[in-house]
Structures are given as structure tokens and as C-alpha cells.
Design goal:
heterodimer; A: 386 residues; alpha/beta; TIM Barrel; nine-stranded mixed sheet; 9 strands; 41% helix; B: 476 residues; Rossmann fold; 2 domains; six-stranded mixed sheet; four-stranded antiparallel sheet; binds iron/sulfur cluster
Chain lengths: 386, 476
């Protein structure tokens, strides 16, 4: 479970054109103050490692931020932090070092490649981008290389820009960045307005190119490919939320600690500007429905990758309706196919081609029906033992 | 079983029910899946749900007791069967089990899971006057309509619900959404799905007047039984806007206070765009995205001339200059004029101008082509001076006789000490920049400076730029 501490909710200093939180901000649902004691009390109760999150976490008053960092360090030996990087200042570097802050920075590329992360005007956007680039270089030079989160979109991964993006990632690897997380642009925010989203074919081509790049750059790892390979291998211990049968009413993998200390859901499914509170019980209705719904109707029926993919993130569902499969299905399917082919060629197993697949699916469906969500690994072990 | 929370649940709709709905105890499942729209909505409405449940149950049992309806159906957990039957007996009614269904793992205690599987089930009881004929809850297909009327349905709704059941349906929401009536679903349906409120039956349409009539009767009886406050809440709720939809067998009801969902037996084509609270596409700022340029243009924009400037690639140059600007934020804030000596094609100047657009900016670049590129990058109003550094600095003194606040230099590129002295003569503060070339050679900026006989103001060891100390590099 990832615990995301969000003192200022979705409040942010920039307005990425594609950000999933823009709906919340547009609706005016951002807190203006927070109750740090309540937040700390909730963190005490949860007793889980946590990440500092937003909106933009660096908008938090520094003494309060330091208190949270100290708490993470004292209790868990460190704390994660997800930031757009624009507000990091030189004095923050020592805070990061002192409290073992694992920084993740979102940037889609250098200079013009990051223009989708809009800061109000072109000069302001470029200024913000320059600050992010500076933060990454500085953290690397200070021996604390950040993880970098890149969202693929037309500004950075259109066919005529992809080579530039790849070359920049090579540069980041040289600087010391080791891990990159790739996101696909959330289509529902952009499909009508701004044309930032790549087509499914372009996304797939971009991800395939980046996968080849990963093999060329041994020091750089894109989380997503390793996770997909792990899922196909039936090992879901370390993989991220999108592969874990997410329930948008009670996101298990991501729990937000909000400005008043209450528990919140992952906001990626909040399409109407409302941050709904967590439901009392987790359920797997989406997965049960996707499993039996034909693909033509937005389901995943008969997809051999269902155990690994599960329809992916409900925040990326077709039409913004969490009940549908991910709009990025063709991308996931294509990549799973590539990885499956390679695993089989290398003599590794792929759950999608396993003789146990239908038995595992039946067990998973039965478990979801009573509100249980066993790991794929545990089911596979049972199946292989019998 | 988890003893906290409600102990029994009314069904929605009341019988006749489908034989094997996907979620038999749908009201319980739905109530467990309430997701409030915020802390205030939860603070207001969560405490009201239990009294509303209590009122609905009391009204329902009173209807049975007064023989307005022959019976009703209640779901309960194994541990609460005793309390339920006792309650029925206390008002002269009988309770008979009619079916059981596996509940949810989250509700199970560990002991029950291991020792006592019957405690994992939820049980449906028919409650009515003895002798109770349990078949009335699940009649044969030809008896649906008549049974519905006996259980309190208006004739129009009894007919439509009977038709729906005969078509294999089981979810009253599906009936409502497919009936062709474009009137928004009535707010009381958002309570009905939880087994609460005045809509007991499956309405034939959202605008059904007979349903409205039945709701009034329910509320009147509630008031008669002393549930005045609860009935006032129902009146308040009646004005809520409700969005209801059923997609691929999952139902969802959304109100301003909460949303809830359940697994329905019924699927419908997605209703994209139709739902009231589905996101309207956000109106975006008019800022249109510039048409992406091709790779070559983008590389030019990112930064050319990196080799001459002492960098491995354009990304390194942009990143370093960005870092220099970031490190010198405070100095730039104080400055009114800046020069970059050896400005190449002007990237650092551009980054500086983005940080503080009103600064007076000057560039000095010996390479004519690079100087021209710099002019294009930073604009004609910012002088880029050509010729040797010494000549250009002399020209700069004439252009800015009051001096320059901040000068950026790569001392290696500047070459001789005489040129550095000339920079120091015109600039109030000189910032030394570490390039890839100089940092590879000297490892850090302090070593670079020391090797060149320069003294820097103290700072972070890992910095890539630093101000010369007041005397360093000045002509002796
Ligand atoms: S909505 Fe998507 S991003 Fe959020 S927890 Fe679920 S799978 Fe993860
Ligand atoms: S690849 Fe597509 S069809 Fe298959 S499980 Fe994933 S989203 Fe569903």
C-alpha cells in the first residue's frame, strides 16, 4: 500500500494541461489550510511508510514539511516525495539528505518537450521546466538521484520527437538517474480540447522504442516494463497499483491522507471534480464485470492477459467511466504480447500461456466475488503444487 | 459476524424478486459501498442513515401488521437471526427463512471462517402474519404481477416489474433506465438502493404518479409513527439531483452527498455523455499548443553549439545553464543587468530572461554565426556583441557606462587573465560557470577556480556556479 500525504490536496503551482487533478481544481475543491496534527495522528495510526504528495507538496510551509519528513525518517528510515520540482530551492537539498527523502520528479523532457506541463504562459512554462532540470541535475550531483516520471504525449513522444526524448533519457542516465516511470497521457482530459494525447499506435510505438532504449542503457530502468514482465511471470509482489485490481471506491494500493487527516482515495478516478471519501468495503465489481463483458462493450472477456492486466487503471477507463477497461488497452495488450514472446523464447513462463490460466482465473473470480483479492503469486503456487 | 452497523436490511424492490440475482443482498452491498462526497457530506448524512433505516423498517413492519401488505423480506446475518425473529414476534408476526447467500469476506470473523461456515452467510426472512406461505416471495412467472400488487406495487409498476422479471431482469434500476422516460431518476431512488426511504417497489418510470402517491403514504405513516425528523429529511432529499447509470452490469448512483455502487445482473450499453455528473470537458485556456516542430528544430531550440560551449550534448548544456540560473536566483533577483561573456547561441541568456524578463541582457560572442543565432534566440533588443572579448567588453562599457550587475563567464573559455580582469572591471559581480569540460578536468568548481588562481565565495561543494570573491581576478 502506498500512503500519500496531501496536506494541500490537489493544490498546485502549475497547471499541466493533462493533469488528472485539474477537474478537482476547476471545481474549486482544493483545501486552503491543513491540520498537521490530524495528519500526523492518521499517519501514526496507519504505521506505514508514506510519500509526500500533492497537488504540489513543496507548496507546504517548510517547517511543516520538515516535520513530516522527520516523522518519515524517524519511523521508517526515510520518506518518498513526489514533486513537480519547480519549487525546490537550494536549502531543500540538505533537508532531503538529512531525512532520507526519496524524491520523484515529474518532467516530460527538456525545454520544449515539457511544454504540456503548462505554467500559464510559454516563458513561465519554460522557466518552470528549467527549474525542474536544475533540480534533477543538482540532486544527481549531490548523490541523491531522483526518480523521474515522464508522461508520454504529443509534445515529447510524437514520432518526430521520440528520438530527442530517448537521447535526453540517455543524458539523464549519464547524470545518475536510475529509475524512470512512464505514464500514458490521461485521454479523457485532452481528447476533445488540446490534441495532446498520442494515438494508441503512437503510444505503443513510443513504449516499444523506450523498451529498446532500456536494453541499450543498462543503468536506466523503466518501472513499467519490469512490472509487466513480473506480472506475466506471476510475481505481483512488487508491481504497482495498476496491475492490482484497483477498486476506485476504496483504492487499496493508494491511500491518501488529506488536509484534515481523513483517509482519501487515489484521485485518478475523480473525473467530476469531487474527491469522494473511501467506501467502507473494498469490492472488485469492476474486475468481475470486465471479465465477463465482451471487449466490444468495453470489457476484457477472453483476453489472455487479464490475470496480469485486469483492465488496468480505472482512472484511465474508456470514456472516463471506471466500469470500462483502460482506454490504453491496445498499448498494454501490445506490450504484454512483446514481453510474452520474449519470455517464452527465453524459456521463461508466461501466465497468459500457462496451462493453469483458466483455473487461476476461476479462482481469482471466486475470490473477488466475496470481496477477497489474493495475490496472483499465491494462486499460482497453489496451482503448481497440485 | 461484524456486529457494528445495521443488523437487518430491507430489499429493494420488495417481492416479487428474481430467483438468482447477482447480488441477493444488494441493499447491504450498496450500503457498504457508500462513498461520501466529502467530510461535510459525511458528517451530515452518515448519522442520518441509521435512523432512516430504523424508520423504514418500522414503517414496513407496521404495513405488514396493519395487513396493507401480506409480508416483507428482510436480510440478516446469522448472529442477528434471533433478534429479528424476536422483533417480528413482539408485534405478532412470524419470520421464516427463505434463502441464504454468501456474504463478503470483509464481514467474516476468523472463527466463523474456520469453525462455523453458516455464520458466513446472510439469510433472507419472510416476515408476515402466521401462517406464512414462503412461496409468495418468489412466485411463478404468471403470478408476478398479482404478487407485486399484494406487496404494495401500484398496478402500472406491478405490470412493468412483472414484465422485467419475465425478461430475466432482476434490478429495478435497469427497469427505470430502460423505460424510455427521460425524466431524471427521482432522488428517493438513491435511498431505495440502500433499502431505505419511501420508494419500496420497482417504479415503472421516473415520473410515475402512482409511485409518488405511494411515497406520500409511506411518509405519512412515518409521521404517524413518530418519525417526524426522519420524514423531514426525506422531504429534503426529494429535491436532490440524482445521476444513475448501469454499465456492463455495474450500477452506480451519484448524488451531491454520496455515490454508491453495486453489482447488478443487468448490463446496458454505456451511456457516455448522458450522465449529469459525468465530466463536462473542461474549458481550456485558449493557449493553443504550438505545432510540434520536427527533431532538428527541437534540437536547435534545446541548444546548439554545445561543443564550443564545453558540453557533451545539448541536454547537458541546457541542464547546466538551468542549474546555474537556479543557483543564482538570489543574485538575479538583485540584478538589473546581466552579461554572458562567451554566450554562444544565447541559451543562458534566454533562460535568464525567462526568470526575469525585465533584466537588461547583453551577450558577447566572438563566433559570428553563434552570435547571430543568439540574436535570434534572445531577440533584437538584447545586444549581442561580436569581436574579441576585450573589444566587446570595451563596447559594452560604452553601452552600459554605469556598469553591469552580473557577468557569467566560463573562465576556461575566456582564456587569459586580462580578459577576466576586463570583465571584473565592468561587472559588479562575476559568476563562474562550470562546464562539462571544466568539471571533468577539475572535478568541482572550487578546484577549477583554484587551478586558475581565482577565489570563490563559499558555497555548496556540488554547485556548478559561484561568484568570484571581491578581489579575485581583479587587476592588481
Ligand atoms: S485509480 Fe489507477 S492510479 Fe489510482 S490507485 Fe487505482 S490503479 Fe492506481
Ligand atoms: S490488455 Fe486490454 S483486454 Fe486485456 S486485460 Fe488489459 S485492458 Fe483488458
Amino acid at each position: 500500500m502506498t500512503v500519500e500525504v496531501r496536506p494541500l490536496g490537489d493544490k498546485c503551482n502549475i497547471k499541466c494541461r493533462y493533469c488528472y487533478q485539474e477537474g478537482i481544481r476547476t471545481a474549486g475543491n482544493v483545501p486552503t489550510r491543513y491540520d498537521l496534527d490530524a495528519i500526523v495522528a492518521t499517519l501514526d495510526k496507519l504505521a506505514e511508510p508514506f510519500s509526500l504528495f500533492g497537488g504540489e507538496i513543496m507548496l507546504t510551509r517548510r517547517p511543516d514539511l520538515e516535520r513530516l519528513m522527520r516523522l518519515g525518517f524517524d519511523r521508517h528510515g526515510g520518506v518518498g516525495m513526489q514533486t513537480n520540482g519547480t519549487l525546490i530551492e537550494e536549502r531543500d537539498i540538505e533537508l532531503f539528505r538529512k531525512y532520507h527523502v526519496r524524491v520523484g520528479i515529474s518532467i516530460d523532457g527538456p525545454g520544449p518537450l515539457n511544454d504540456a506541463r503548462w505554467a500559464g504562459s510559454l516563458p513561465a512554462t519554460r522557466r518552470a521546466t528549467a527549474r525542474i532540470e536544475a533540480a534533477i541535475e543538482t540532486l544527481c550531483r549531490e548523490g541523491m538521484p531522483p526518480n523521474v516520471i515522464v508522461t508520454l504525449n504529443r509534445m515529447n513522444a510524437a514520432p518526430d520527437r521520440l528520438n530527442v526524448l530517448c537521447a535526453w533519457i540517455g543524458f539523464l542516465g549519464g547524470l545518475g538517474v536510475r529509475k524512470l516511470r512512464l505514464h500514458l497521457l490521461e485521454q479523457d482530459e485532452t481528447e476533445a480540447g488540446e490534441g495532446l494525447a498520442l494515438t494508441a499506435q503512437e503510444n505503443l510505438a513510443a513504449l516499444r522504442r523506450l523498451r529498446r532504449l532500456e536494453q541499450e542503457l543498462p543503468s536506466v530502468q523503466f518501472d513499467i516494463f519490469a512490472e509487466m514482465a513480473a506480472m506475466l511471470g506471476g510475481d505481483d509482489a512488487q508491481t504497482s497499483c495498476v496491475f492490482h485490481a484497483c477498486d476506485p471506491y476504496a483504492t487499496r494500493a493508494v491511500v491518501g491522507v488529506e488536509s484534515d487527516g481523513r483517509l482519501g482515495n487515489c484521485g485518478r478516478t475523480n473525473k467530476d471534480g469531487v474527491t469522494h471519501l473511501r467506501a467502507g468495503r473494498e469490492a472488485f465489481d469492476r474486475q468481475l464485470s470486465l471479465y465477463r463483458t465482451p471487449q466490444a462493450d468495453g470489457g476484457c472477456q477472453d483476453c489472455r492477459f487479464f490475470l496480469a492486466c485486469k483492465g488496468n487503471c480505472p482512472g484511465t477507463a474508456i470514456g472516463g467511466d471506471w466500469r470500462m477497461r483502460s482506454i490504453d488497452c491496445p498499448v498494454w495488450f501490445g506490450l504484454f504480447e512483446d514481453i510474452e514472446t520474449e519470455r517464452l523464447a527465453n524459456g521463461q513462463t508466461a501466465i497468459s500461456r500457462s496451462e493453469h490460466r483458466s483455473e487461476l482465473e476461476a479462482k481469482m473470480i471466486a475470490a473477488w466475488s466475496i470481496g477477497d483479492n489474493p495475490t496472483l503469486h499465491s494462486l499460482l503456487q497453489q496451482a503448481e503444487a497440485t | 459476524m461484524n456486529s457494528a452497523g445495521p443488523t437487518c436490511w430491507l430489499t429493494w424492490p420488495r417481492p416479487p424478486l428474481a430467483a438468482t440475482p447477482r447480488e441477493p443482498d444488494a441493499a447491504k452491498a450498496t450500503a457498504q459501498r457508500i462513498s461520501f462526497s466529502g467530510p461535510q457530506a459525511r458528517a451530515l448524512w452518515q448519522p442520518r442513515l441509521e435512523p432512516l433505516r430504523h424508520a423504514a423498517l418500522a414503517i414496513e413492519l407496521e404495513m405488514v401488521r396493519r395487513k396493507r401488505i401480506p409480508a416483507t423480506v428482510l436480510w440478516t446475518s446469522y448472529d442477528d437471526i434471533g433478534a429479528l425473529t424476536e422483533r417480528a414476534r413482539s408485534i405478532g408476526l412470524d419470520a421464516k427463512p427463505i434463502k441464504a447467500s454468501l456474504g463478503y469476506a470483509a464481514d467474516w470473523s476468523l472463527e466463523a471462517s474456520i469453525d462455523d461456515p453458516k455464520r458466513l452467510l446472510d439469510y433472507a426472512f419472510l416476515i408476515g402474519a402466521a401462517p406464512l406461505d414462503t412461496s409468495i416471495a418468489e412466485p411463478a412467472a404468471d403470478g408476478f404481477e398479482q404478487t407485486a400488487i399484494r406487496f404494495g406495487y401500484p398496478a402500472c409498476c406491478a405490470k412493468s416489474w412483472a414484465d422485467h422479471l419475465r425478461r430475466g431482469g432482476s434490478d429495478p434500476l435497469a427497469g427505470l433506465l430502460t423505460c424510455g422516460d427521460k425524466t431524471p431518476v427521482h432522488a428517493h431512488v438513491a435511498l431505495a438502493v440502500l433499502g431505505l426511504g419511501p420508494v419500496r417497489h420497482a417504479p415503472c418510470s421516473s415520473s410515475c404518479p402512482a409511485t409518488r402517491e405511494r411515497s406520500h403514504e409511506f411518509i405519512d405513516l412515518g409521521r404517524e409513527l413518530g418519525f417526524a425528523e426522519e420524514m423531514n429529511w426525506l422531504d429534503e432529499i426529494a429535491d436532490w439531483a440524482v445521476d444513475a447509470s448501469l454499465v456492463n452490469g455495474i450500477a452506480e448512483v451519484t448524488t451531491a452527498a454520496y455515490r454508491c455502487t453495486w453489482l447488478s445482473d443487468e448490463g446496458m450499453p454505456p451511456r457516455h455523455g448522458a450522465a449529469a455528473t459525468r465530466p463536462a470537458k473542461r474549458e481550456r485556456a485558449a493557449a493553443a499548443i504550438a505545432k510540434p516542430a520536427d527533431s532538428a528544430d527541437i534540437l536547435t531550440e534545446i541548444g546548439i553549439g554545445f561543443e564550443a560551449a564545453g558540453f557533451d550534448n545539448p541536454f547537458a548544456m541546457r541542464s547546466r545553464f538551468s542549474t546555474v540560473v537556479w543557483e543564482q536566483t538570489a543574485a538575479l533577483r538583485r540584478a538589473a543587468s546581466v552579461v554572458h561573456v562567451g554566450c554562444g547561441e544565447g541559451l543562458l541568456l534566454e533562460l535568464v530572461s525567462q526568470t526575469k524578463p525585465r533584466l537588461k541582457l547583453y551577450g558577447i560572442e566572438q563566433d559570428a554565426a553563434a552570435a547571430e543565432a543568439a540574436r535570434r534566440r534572445v531577440g533584437a533588443s538584447r545586444p549581442i556583441l561580436g569581436g574579441s572579448s576585450i573589444e566587446a567588453l570595451a563596447a559594452l562599457s560604452r553601452l552600459a557606462p554605469e556598469g553591469i550587475d552580473l557577468a557569467f563567464v566560463d573562465p576556461e573559455r575566456l582564456g587569459d587573465r586580462e580578459a577576466l580582469a576586463a570583465v571584473c572591471a565592468i561587472a559588479k559581480s562575476v559568476i563562474v560557470i562550470g562546464t562539462d569540460r571544466s568539471l571533468y578536468r577539475h572535478n568541482d568548481i572550487d578546484t577549477l577556480a583554484a587551478t586558475m588562481g581565482l577565489a570563490l565565495l563559499p558555497g555548496r561543494a556540488g554547485r556548478v556556479s559561484a561568484a568570484l570573491s571581491a578581489t579575485s581576478g581583479r587587476p592588481h
